[in-house]
Task: structure prediction
Amino acid sequence: MQFSGVVGIPLLKLTGMFEQYPVRTANVMLLTYWTIISFILGLLIVLLLLRRDMSMRIEHAGKTIAVVWSVLGVFLAMAGQAVAGMIEHALGITQVSENTQNIVNLVKATPFLIVVTSVIGPILEEIIFRKIIFGSLHKRYNFFISAFISSLIFAAVHWDFKHLLVYTAMGFVFAFLYARTRLIIVPIIAHVLMNTIVILSQTIFADKIIEMQKQAEQMQFIFGGMFL
Result:
């Protein structure tokens, strides 16, 4: 899926679907549409290969636990991301994540990509990095070693090595959720919710958030002036 664009994008270009657009726009759309196609195909292939082993069913007694840990997992992942971000800042790494920015730009060009980045991507990643890689390692090694190796691979696949610590921290949180509940659906839901919040806050609701920040700054200035 990661490298399929080498073949897929030229093939998609041969269809002539984007010839009416300027070259730059056409290239962005080709990349976006092939990302959607490759992620969907990747997920279908993984589910097909694991059809005998995959089980996302939650027993009646475990529904409450799954919901609680899924919601709590979002806050844990964001907290881990924040701590890792502060460490990076202390080390002089202040640049915004290039991977996240690229995704945001592609989503703005093709809003349907939100389905991939917020739903399909997290499902695929949790099955591969937590259920398969972490799950296999955890049978032989302790949690820390298993989580570290699987999280490091998870971080490296995002091709954003400046922010390797942030992605590794997130991987640790999702590995913890899976190890704690033994339900792959839990880190999947937490990952889906977190990605959805991030993408929506930087695309659809970006202008509203900026406006709210400006209003908050104005209120702070007004109230601050009252006490000077």
